[in-house]
Amino acid sequence: MRNRGQPPVLAVDVMGSDRGPKEILEGVRRALCTRTTAPFRVILVGDGGMIRATIAERRFRSVLSRMEIFHAAEVIGMEESPTKVLRQKKRASMAQAIELVKEGRSDGVLSCGNTGALVALGTVRLRPIEGLDRPALATVIPAIDRRFVLLDVGANPAPTARQLVHSAILGSHYSSVALRIPSPKIGLLSIGTEEGKGNALVQEAHETLKLLASRQIINYRGLIEGFQLFQEDGDSIDVVVCDGFVGNVLLKAMESIAKRLKKFLRKELLRNPLRIFGCLFLGAALRTIRAKLSAERYGAAPLLGLSGAVFKAHGGSDCREICHAVLIAQRFLRAGMGEELHRQVLQAQELLRTAEKEEKVLI
Fold first, then answer.
1. Phi, psi for 17 (deg, rounded to 5)
2. Which residues are CB-neighbours of 316 under 8 A, at least 6 positions away?
3. Fewer CB atoms < 10 Å away: N or C end of the chain?
4. Are 223 and 192 in contact (CB under 8 A)?
């Protein structure tokens, strides 16, 4: 096992990107070159020959001492089923990167690859924290005046109500550590805020979450609707819980809207000379808005609830987004968030077991 005082080590699945391995390697290089970041190391997992040829280029010279190569001959395709991956792709780059975490050679793993395969491999090889059924994939969503955690965004498309409650617990603890919110306000996404709204899954989870809130285990505020996600008032929600199917659709829709809005604004602002002149005075404000809303700043989604740290980046991430994903992952590892989440989840589970005995609730 690695010593706690050493700089964190991140295993990077080089072969999982839609844009190719070189895009990932360039993103890793940029992250290692970031001067404001404390030292960390990476293990590049993938085709050893290709990796060596790429990092032999001049621009990689300054970071070579912080890179290690681990050869993996196989690659997991985006279309491959998790079942097939577990049976037939044990030597693939993603599988080998996760194995490095299990063996203690790496503190965490980052991959842009097949989400289902990453969840399956992470769950089987690293195992969920005691008391949890399955992990949840979380991401930080930027709003105008704040940020909030959205989960699950793809790890568990068809959860049970019990697993939705687990996601609320994980999201609450992650928000308190990652966003430094003392008592995160949790909302369960539904089609209305009134009692009885939503399907049976939502209603079952809602009843248990209300009980946990009454015991002050979590700060659950009830059912929320989609329009409440970006509210700017003081009662805004810090953690939004939903199933992985809804969360993944929601996340991709928000990403698409942000990209289209950028193109729309550019088109309209450049439509005539008067507007172009006005842009000279709006430049600073537009750059600030872009920085706040940029998805690339939050490019690594942690798979919460496992005994090892697993991070998922978007399959189409460019080198800038990979750079930010690496930086987010190493900050997570350096802060020891994995250990803190483990401790707090076990504490919450003990309270839940007590509540179950007394109230015979879901958990």
1. -90, 145
2. 17, 18, 19
3. N
4. yes
Tokens describing residue 243: 């199933």
Q: Do 328 and 174 touch, CB atoms closer than 8 A?
A: no
CA torsion angle for 185, 188, 193, 196 (degrees, to 10)? Answer: -140
Q: Locate 30 and state its tokens.
A: 């940029």
CATH 3.10.50.40 fits 136-295, yes or no: no
Res 21 pLDDT > 90: yes
Lowest mean pLDDT among 106-110, 292-296, 303-307: 292-296
The radius of gyration of the chain's CA atoms, rounded to the nearest angstrom, is 21
Is the pLDDT confidence value at 280 over 80?
no
3-state helix, strand, coil in the chain (%, to 5): 50, 15, 35
Cα dihedral angle (166, 172, 178, 182), rounded to 10 degrees? -160
pLDDT mean across residues, the chain: 85
**CA-CA distance, 168 to 166, in Å (whole number)?**
5
Instruction: Give the pLDDT of residue 1.
Output: 47
In this structure, what token pair is assigned to residue 5? 């005082």
**Band of the pLDDT at 292, cuts 50, 70, 90?**
low
Q: Out of 3.40.718.10, 3.90.1150.10, 3.20.20.70, 1.10.260.40, which CATH number does the structure's domain 9-132+305-335 have?
A: 3.40.718.10
Smallest CA-to-CA distance from 304 within 61, 180, 165, 134 is with 134
Q: What is the pLDDT of residue 5?
A: 65
> What's the rounded Cα separation, in Å, for the pair 28 and 199?
43
Long-range contacts formed by 270-273: CB under 8 A, 24+ apart:
none
Name residue, tokens 């050679």.
105
Question: For 88-212, where are the E strands, in sequence order?
Answer: 108-111, 136-142, 147-151, 185-189
- Asked if the model's pLDDT at residue 347 lies above 90, the reply is no
Closest alpha carbon to 30 in 63, 58, 68: 63
**Cα separation of 108 and 311, whole Å?**
8
- CA distances to 136, 180, 230, 277 from 147, rounded to whole Å, are 19, 11, 9, 33
